[in-house]
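Example 3.2
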Amino acid sequence: MAKTRVSLVDIARKTGYSVMTVSYALRNHPKIRESTRALIHAAAEELGYVPDPDLVKLMSRIRMSQKIETRSFVAVLDLFEDRKAFTADPYTNAMISACEERLGKLGYQLSRFRIFEPRLSPRRISSILVSRGIEGVILPPFPTELKNFEMDWNAVALICTEERFHEPELNKVIPHHYSNMIRVLTHVWEMGYRRPGLASCKNSLGRDNFAWFGAYYSFLADRMGSSWLPPLPVANDPAEMVRWYNEFKPDVIIVTEDWLIEAFQKESGLRIPEDVGAVSASADFGSLSGIVQGAEVIGSAAADILTAHIIRNERGVPENPKTMMIEGTWIDRGTAGEAAPEEGTTRKRAQKKARRPA
């Protein structure tokens, strides 16, 4: 005989609470006291209660068919002291716009909250969030110089889109930097390039938890053995980048931000891609071929995860943080093509042209 599915009514009979109270408790609704929730959860586990997936899907379809009114508020924290810095980055703007659009479809309203206007204490930040009815907080990419900041993390549900935020460790949605760099290297290798060089700017250094560098070393150790090119960790100085180019002779330069190539071209006089190929590991809004990290996909995924935390009443720092990594996609903008022969005259002229006095 098939085992009868345990229902909410069964749990209500065992605990003495109403079916409505049982339903709220199993969804960890804050209106039910913690002690009551614990008792009902224990009874459900003892009886072997498992939610009916068909019923869950039916209720979801019913809710989606109804007009959704904004029922909750979510804040995105602006951690820049400069008023204009937060809106200056197209990647952050695209991510937040996608997050806001997705939240709106789910019935949530997104608002911006400036931490440094005025400069607020951790207690004051949390107090304002609670008083404004903020139930969830999104931590977007923040200034390089900012390693962490303090607030009462237990007051809200949280999602982070900045990989290098580690105090405390939060659930995150981020680009899959390691996989993306492997894709870049695979593409340029298939194009015929055999001396790829990696140049990073100070702002990018460590922002990916050094996944870009790890992938670079791993890929070239496999393909080139001990003859791989040392990367340039901080390429902010164009003259230093030219010296690096002249010393190691890369046939394609991989950068973490497009402006590095623009400054390098101005200093060296080289042509892209005729003299040297150029690709970007973060090509979302630039002019180089490379990997589009998917700011919109990351923003939408962050909204889904955050609202799930709110619905399940999961507040504060998770005991076992989880990270969702989004795979990027390759885009060809014509800045890298078939590599010139290693001993080709074009490449030799380019290297000679790039030489500058040390």
